[in-house]
């Protein structure tokens, strides 16, 4: 756990919907194949012949690209046999490398006489575009019919490769239910299900997944209707399409309890899987943090051999007062037990006992506003005056509905504790005292802290009171 994760959550909760587009690429919703086709200047299968600057070999590359593409097949528009893409530098724009063969929904820029492949669309490797290609190859008839479709595909977090497409799921049933009638379709060899000529109206789409696989997440497209439950609801219009892709992963898990040498639960410690037979890879991320009872679950695991690692970065803190450890409870990686996970297997008894812990202490208190009202759901941060190289210098917790907090640190850590929040002009508009505090900090505001309280090294510290220098804001505008 730790302060960095809590701060990240607080920032996301504060600014989501406000300026996330300035900080990262965010794609909400999606176009159906017929919507993407209607909105594009041209639709082609293109082979990338050259890229400037040369392919950087890094999928996280963020920079402009000039891409030379040979057009293999045109479904719409009048693209030449060879076209030039000008891809912007922002992180939503798809980036290319020589040899890519993509289905491209193109948009033409008249002043520069160049094309662009937009982000957040249905563009992608042609080998993975079965749903789109079925619709495109059936033109012009397909554009004048209703259609519900999608793909069911297996994805896994693969050691050495990260999150990747493994294979289409063949023969999976999908139930499509309208008013008074249910239709059943199955996925074909490319993982695609489709049905044409349904009467306009509201439909639910419910897939049945094969044994050994579970839903990771759906990717709906088209006119999604509000609703609760496992099914997706769509309002199908005349001559329109809708549907969803479903990404599945292995229905496997490894779970258990983390405790100390005496069997006392260790809550909030974090664990991850490490491939036993391959080098560590940051793209392979299957992890969890133990709950208040010390229970953990690592799931959606591809079949293989693994080590269970606890506190993988080795930094010592109040929640993790021990170096990197391995199942069943050893600090020496060479003595770690290998866990073998087979297709569809679930193991819930991999308990881990940490053999030795550094002494810790608990800091408890309350966070208030200047008018005495409790500051609920507020971040509290401890910062050590100095920390050894292997120590975590910070710890954090959130307050409850009454403004109370409790956080753990190493017993020999001296430092200070303070409450903090992140706010901006819009949230402070009806809070005059808060507005004064963030004046001059710009539209996005910034951090507001209580006066810190010193905490010496030693035993538990209780009854710490932290006070924000402004009264609680009206309920509707509470920051």
What is this structure's SSE topology?
Layout: H1 3-15, H2 20-23, H3 33-39, E1 42-52, E2 65-76, E3 82-87, E4 101-109, E5 114-117, E6 124-125, H4 130-137, E7 147-158, E8 162-168, E9 173-178, E10 181-186, E11 192-196, E12 201-208, E13 213-221, E14 224-225, E15 232-236, E16 241-250, E17 253-260, E18 270-275, E19 287-289, E20 295-299, E21 304-310, E22 325-326, E23 339-341, E24 346-347, E25 352-354, E26 360-368, E27 379-384, E28 394-398, E29 404-410, E30 415-423, H5 432-437, E31 446-449, E32 453-455, E33 461-467
Parallel strand pairs: 7-16, 17-24, 17-25, 26-33
Antiparallel strand pairs: 1-2, 1-4, 2-3, 4-5, 4-6, 7-8, 7-11, 9-10, 9-12, 12-15, 13-16, 14-15, 17-20, 18-19, 18-21, 21-22, 21-23, 26-29, 27-28, 27-30, 30-31, 30-32
Helix content: under 10%
Measured between the Cα atoms of the first and last residue, the distance is 24 Å
Q: What is the assembly state of the chains in this entry?
A: single chain
* Radius of gyration based on Cα positions: 27 Å
**Tertiary shape:** globular
Structural class by SSE content:
mainly beta
Q: What portion of the residues fall into strands of 2 or more residues?
A: 35-45%
Sheet with most strands: 6 strands, antiparallel
Overall average residue pLDDT: 88
Helix count, DSSP H or I runs of 4 or more residues: 5
- Poorly predicted sequence stretches spanning 5 or more consecutive residues: 1-24
Number of strands: 33
